[in-house]
Design goal:
heterodimer; A: mainly beta; five-stranded mixed sheet; about 0% helix; about 50% strand; B: about 110 residues; 11 strands
Chain lengths: ~110, ~110
């Protein structure tokens, strides 16, 4: 399974765009990249998933360069409620192995 | 609301006891995974079941065992509880094994071992 590396923590302010980058240098051909959000004492919640190029949904965008060795989760105009831990996962199947995640703190 | 329900929500057990945690998968999902999440850490993969068969296991001892039933609900059993087993236990269900499917998590069971 590809190992992922992401920043331990990030701070932002309300209304700003936040970009969280995840490195996965040994990603395999059949691996998908998935991001989850987790609030305290709750289960992780799916945000977005992609294989290559760019994916956008109603809450986020995911940018994946051609070599797929990294990915960037982009959260437009964050609010206080976006304060959470964000996990990047890379796996060929639904055998998800979570890392430590990035703790995002959004300030007023 | 993901449709994945776990019971109980909270539980206190004594060291050495056994515990069974339950997970009801989202309708139509045939795959369930269990995770242990200690305070301040990411979820750690325990094992996964696909159509009632174990389909992968993380670095957990044999006293962690599981079952998946024909209706795809699942149980996690932990024997000989240790203090370090205190954690949030999460289950996640999905439709299939492929990596392009979304997994849905329950709210978890908070287990405290005293």
């Amino acid at each position: 399974l590809a190992k992922t590396t992401q920043p331990i923590s990030m701070d932002s302010y309300e209304g700003q765009e936040v970009n969280i980058t995840c490195s996965h240098n040994n990603i395999a051909t059949n691996d998908y990249i998935t991001w989850y959000q987790q609030f305290p004492s709750q289960g992780p919640r799916f945000i977005i998933q992609g294989y290559k190029t760019k994916v956008t949904n109603e809450v986020a965008s995911l940018f994946i360069p051609a070599d797929r060795k990294s990915s960037t989760l982009s959260l437009p105009r964050v609010s206080l409620s976006d304060t959470a831990v964000y996990y990047c996962l890379v796996a060929p199947y639904n055998d998800m192995r979570f890392g430590a995640g990035t703790r995002l703190t959004v300030k007023p | 609301e993901t449709g994945v329900t776990q019971s109980p929500t909270h539980l206190i057990k004594t060291r050495g006891q056994q515990v069974t945690l339950r997970c009801s998968s989202q309708s139509g999902h045939n795959t369930v995974s269990w995770y242990q999440q200690a305070l301040g850490q990411g979820p750690q993969f325990i094992f996964q079941y696909y159509r009632e068969e174990e389909n992968g296991r993380g670095n957990f001892p044999p006293r962690f065992s599981g079952l998946q039933f024909p209706n795809y609900s699942s149980e996690l059993n932990v024997n000989a509880l240790e203090l370090d087993d205190s954690a949030l236990y999460l289950c996640a269900s999905s439709y299939a094994l492929t990596g392009d499917t979304e997994a849905f998590f329950g709210q978890g069971t908070r287990l405290t071992v005293v």
